[in-house]
Amino acid sequence: MRALVLGDAAPSVTDVPAPTREPGEALVRMRVAGVCDTDLQLMRGYMGFRGVPGHEFVGEVVESEDPHWTGRRVVADINAGCGTCDECRAHGGHHCPHRSVLGILDRAGAFAERFTVPERCLVAVPPAVSDDAAVFAEPLAAALHVLDTFDAASRPSRAVVLGDGKLGLLIVRALAGEGIPTSLVGRHEKKLALARKVAGVETHLEADAPASLQAAPLVVEATGSEAGLARALSLVAPRGTVVLKTTVAQKLNVDLAPLVINEVRLVGSRCGDLQRAIDVLAAGRVDPLPLVETRYPLARADEALAHAGKKGALKVLVDG
Amino acid sequence: MRALVLGDAAPSVTDVPAPTREPGEALVRMRVAGVCDTDLQLMRGYMGFRGVPGHEFVGEVVESEDPHWTGRRVVADINAGCGTCDECRAHGGHHCPHRSVLGILDRAGAFAERFTVPERCLVAVPPAVSDDAAVFAEPLAAALHVLDTFDAASRPSRAVVLGDGKLGLLIVRALAGEGIPTSLVGRHEKKLALARKVAGVETHLEADAPASLQAAPLVVEATGSEAGLARALSLVAPRGTVVLKTTVAQKLNVDLAPLVINEVRLVGSRCGDLQRAIDVLAAGRVDPLPLVETRYPLARADEALAHAGKKGALKVLVDG
């Protein structure tokens, strides 16, 4: 079958052996997959990944252990925990020490005609959610996961999001969808204009960000840059929260004294709940479709990656 | 009056004008003061402080606006907020943007015969608490403040404290006093032996720390070193909490990817509640007296600072 493969050479679409479904797994035919910045990082050597990348997808189950799944349109949690350890049983597979991660760690991903995922990771996609919306379920789940960093008692009165990349644009939708007035600080007028269309969102170019943004109870760092954290710490209020979404491959050179002096909480935040994302999409509370930049067929998935790597690019989709 | 003064030259005890009590303030005669590592940092230029340092003390009120205070033995919250802003009214003065801080920021400190503090910062010391115990109220409050980083629902099953300095030794007492089994990792067998005398505390030399310490739900970083944070991140469990107590004057060079991948909370923690500290001392739940290394009269407070700066020194007291 055809798949995009990362290895020593440049990414290329090539023929690879079709995957074998293991017990408890579903064999999935890819319908649409999305390119994430993590894919670009994997391409540059992050995690030492070799093989088929791709973890944002909507697909159709072609073979499964539980016949209930066969023929259904699905998305999936990318963290395939062992399912049996204390961590998996108490909290699911997101932090299972033995987990594989679709297209990122020890598991071939979705830029392929077919791939496998554990059935316990599957989430059904209702008819109301289109393929192009459903393919956002994974990054939207990650964006909605920002809401898990506070409870009703500590709900922030406003939020600042740093970074107008694909994830930042979903995070402002997640926060504004929750009724939290949100300011987005970014570098691309085109993307900021897109964000401003969402009710409850105001935007600022980084160079023009006003002093009124300071003392924010919640700041989300989604710039993917080394400077982002220091900027977040300069904007957050005493006793406030900075949510760190981006992993920077290199070490940061950062002054953390403000974190101690102002008693700030810095919270790392990664993957979220796919079912919640699908529910939010089905309810029409977040519309991700304006984020689609362009699409390529699987046969040209290498070009899709190259396109996604262009400065300022939004979501690039790959059709199965 | 006599006071220790930090300026361009080496710290020295000299004659300075007696302080004038402003409205709302109490004039306090110092009975005992303690040397904190922050004093040593101020000596090296931290905060650009000039004047009389000293923020750990027990004293006697010699003159006050409210006659209730006169003659009473007191400690005080070192953060003198304006008392009128929203922050002060909602949360007290710890994060008031206009605050002065005793012996640290815009307010002469306790290494003096007399000094002033706002009366709203005073906490009375009951007879059951000796001067030598009461002088620990400020650092003990900071240690007990670690307990504010979790609630009953997220109470950690165990804790690891990094750093066997004066603060680390109080933090293990605070945690163990709360019934949380605590492992202290340090570099000085003498200090570790002291910590081991506290019920519920086990200790390890840094070089011999066992793998079983890993995956701790709570890690407190109190080493005061640049390497401490990376070590804390390597020991904390997924979704766990690292409490950062030490401010390192220089920028840190740190890989924060584990914080995101493991969804760790990094919580800055500074000053605590003096009344709580006095209550804990009065109830005998924490005994700080084994931490006293030696004492000097105020006339030799410069020697007290020098002594406190020696490698491995514990608490050095100054008698008024």
List descriptors:
homodimer, 320 residues, alpha/beta, seven-stranded mixed sheet, six-stranded parallel sheet, 10 helices, 23% helix, 28% strand
Sheet with the most strands, sense and barrel status of chain A = 7 strands, mixed
Mean pLDDT over the residues of chain A:
95
Structural class of chain A: alpha/beta
* Percent range for β-strand residues of chain A: 25-35%
Largest protein interface, residues of each chain: A-B, 34 and 34 residues
Shape of chain A: globular
Q: Kindly state the percentage of residues in helix of chain A.
A: 10-25%
Q: What is the rounded distance between the termini of chain A?
A: 12 Å
Total strands of chain A: the figure is 18
Helix count of chain A, per DSSP?
A: 10
Q: List low-pLDDT spans of chain A.
A: none
Radius of gyration of chain A, CA atoms, in whole angstroms? 19 Å
Quaternary structure classification: homodimer
Order of helices and strands of chain A: EEEHEEEHEEEHHEHEHEEHEEHEHEHE
